[in-house]
Task: structure prediction
Amino acid sequence: MALAAPHAAPAQTQETPSVQTDGQPDTTGQSTGSANTTDTTARPTTTEGAADTATDPDAMAADEEATELDAVDDAAGERQAGLPHDLSPWGMFMAADIVVKGVMIGLAFASVVTWTVLLVKLAELGAAQRSASRAVRRLVAARGLADGEEALGRNRGVVARMTRAAREEMDASEAVLDHVSDGGVKERVSSRLGRMEVHAGRRIAKGTGLLATIGSTAPFVGLFGTVWGIMNSFIGISKAQTTNLAIVAPGIAEALLATAIGLVAAIPAVVIYNFLARAITGYRQNLADASAAIERLASRDLDVRRAVRHAAPRSERASGSVVKIG
Result:
């Protein structure tokens, strides 16, 4: 018994630290156990993930590709944020290059000039045609230059001026009419009327040449704007290093807008020019009719004058013979 006691005491001493008293939990053991548990579970996981990533080249390549795609998407998003999203005509005009803007402004101005010329010429041609038609009818009904000039009255149109010019030429040749043939007077009257007719036709056609110029050059000016805009679009594609439609479409749309404006300016100009050319041809025909009527009146006056001149000597001879016989 005495020998067994010393061996039992150390055993109790060793077991005492593991005994817990009420109200005093063994936090040391728990902390130690938790730390050991955490270390034991975490270290193998990290090691396994690193080992898998290091030993799997496909996974590494996929990660690098995903990173590059994310960077490209971010860059494309930044570029698209600065792109013009307003693709209306005004929005495209405001976003266009300075050269394309200049082309568009010039073509728009040419279109305004075209319609302005149309309105002005319609008013001018309408008034001139009505005046010439009335004057021709009055000259056809007249019996001589004096009668025709009186019928026209205070008309200040081209036909009235032509009638006065023919009468002035007849008055200027009054001194030689009894001594020369009528051919020279008729030729001078015809020459004067012809020049007045040409001058009136040139004056009424003023401005139509501008329509011809616009109709022939506007498509090419618009094409120049289109080529310039598409060139800028390709330059932007090369800088952005992408062929995304959202990047390419706005520049091409702006370029095509220049061609559209060129056609809008050219097509009406050609149609209006042809219409005015036909109207001017009709007006010149009226002037030609008026000139022919005036020449007929002048020729009639000359014939009447010659008839009166030849009739006078006959009456004198007849009256003289009667007196002699008596």
